[in-house]
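Re: [ENG-882] Designed sequences occasionally contain unexpected residues at chain ends

Forwarding the minimal case from QA. Structure tokens:
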């Protein structure tokens, strides 16, 4: 079959953003299917295309036989809400045109944003094409819970679009147990919903990656790394709050390294400078190959999110699975399914939200009991291999699409 795959933020591993769609599309191709990936030009992404844009787009075959159609529609998570909304609408409009004319057997779309479902809805009802919709975040539940969107008209429109996407899809894929439950609460039968969480790239995050550390982190320091977006949802002030406690305790041997970009990076850097937090190191985004090397030199991976109950079971962050694949102990600062995984596997630390002292206590324990960290790391890697091998999850993903195509 030929699949038209819509993902506005698509990236290959040469970029500095998540590669789930790249891996899933590769698996489709490996199983004998053709894929056209339709995407925009995300700031930290790398689509694999390098030819000039013509009439606002470029198209070509990249590695593994994957075809990519990239629109010249830039996007940055540092943009404000108006500019981001405009980018979402423009991508959806151009995607609808593709969905209505491109020869295909199935249309697949993945969030965010929620507008990603629009081309799938059009293909389903105007062309009678099978449509599979992947939900990475529950909208409008998450932006409402975070207070990002409060206008009742906007929230109502988002809720209607969410319902229409779910109603139109032949099958749905949720990335976490909470997302699956949220879809089911909208009246979708559970036999139409498949749980396919983010997975672990076990080959990339292996012991073969050359280790490296930022120059300001000594080889003897305990290095705890957060690698991801610096936005409101990430709640990274919690890291700086813990850094204040560590500095007050004189624990200069613990360094918190924040790798990535985002709208709140500059304010976080300004706060760290203002408060003299020399135990916090900011580093630009790196591609997946460089990230694997950084992980090889890291002692603890930091899974941090804002203290929003909707996040507890309703997210599936890439970074968490990268930490597991790297064989790192993971520190999680909020309850939910990832915290439960870490505790059940004894592969890290779970601390309560909004508790800087408990966060600092866990890092001090890691620094003082370093002999225990390799064992935690081995259990993290074992969890990755047992439950989150991306190759097996990708096969489950392809099975879901194949089943939808023969409805």
């Amino acid at each position: 079959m030929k699949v038209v795959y819509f993902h506005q933020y698509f990236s290959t591993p040469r970029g500095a953003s998540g590669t789930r769609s790249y891996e899933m599309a590769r698996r489709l191709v490996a199983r004998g299917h053709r894929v056209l990936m339709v995407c925009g030009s995300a700031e930290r992404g790398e689509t694999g295309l390098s030819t000039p844009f013509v009439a606002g787009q470029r198209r070509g075959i990249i590695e593994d036989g994957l075809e990519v159609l990239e629109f010249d529609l830039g996007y940055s998570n540092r943009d404000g809400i108006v500019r981001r909304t405009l980018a979402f609408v423009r991508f959806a409009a151009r995607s609808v045109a593709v969905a209505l004319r491109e020869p295909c057997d199935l249309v697949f779309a993945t969030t965010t944003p929620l507008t990603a479902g629009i081309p799938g809805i059009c293909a389903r009802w105007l062309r009678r094409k099978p449509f599979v919709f992947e939900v990475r975040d529950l909208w409008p539940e998450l932006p409402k819970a975070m207070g990002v969107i409060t206008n009742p008209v906007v929230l109502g429109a988002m809720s209607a679009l969410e319902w229409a996407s779910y109603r139109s899809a032949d099958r749905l894929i949720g990335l976490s147990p909470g997302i699956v439950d949220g879809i089911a609460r909208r009246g979708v039968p559970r036999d139409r919903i498949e749980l396919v969480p983010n997975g672990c790239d076990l080959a990339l995050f292996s012991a073969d990656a050359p280790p490296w550390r930022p120059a300001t982190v000594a080889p003897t320091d305990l290095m705890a790394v957060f690698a991801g977006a610096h936005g409101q949802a990430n709640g990274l002030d919690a890291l700086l709050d813990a850094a204040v406690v560590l500095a007050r305790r004189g624990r200069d041997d613990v360094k918190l390294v924040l790798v990535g970009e985002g709208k709140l990076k500059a304010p976080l850097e300004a706060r760290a400078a203002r408060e003299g937090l020399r135990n916090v190191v900011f580093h630009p985004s790196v591609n997946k190959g460089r990230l694997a090397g950084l992980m090889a030199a890291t002692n603890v991976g930091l899974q941090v999110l804002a203290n929003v109950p909707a996040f507890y079971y309703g997210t599936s962050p890439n970074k968490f699975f990268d930490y597991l694949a790297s064989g790192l102990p993971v520190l999680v600062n909020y309850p939910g399914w990832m915290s439960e995984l870490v505790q059940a596997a004894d592969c890290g630390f779970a601390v309560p939200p909004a508790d800087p002292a408990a966060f600092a206590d866990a890092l001090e324990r890691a620094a003082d009991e370093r002999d225990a960290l390799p064992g935690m790391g081995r259990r993290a890697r074992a969890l990755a291999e047992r439950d989150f091998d991306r190759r097996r999850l990708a096969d489950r993903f392809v099975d879901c699409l194949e089943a939808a195509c023969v409805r």
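QA comment: On inspection the terminal residues look reasonable. Residues 81-101 form the longest helix (21 residues). Proposing we downgrade this to a documentation issue.
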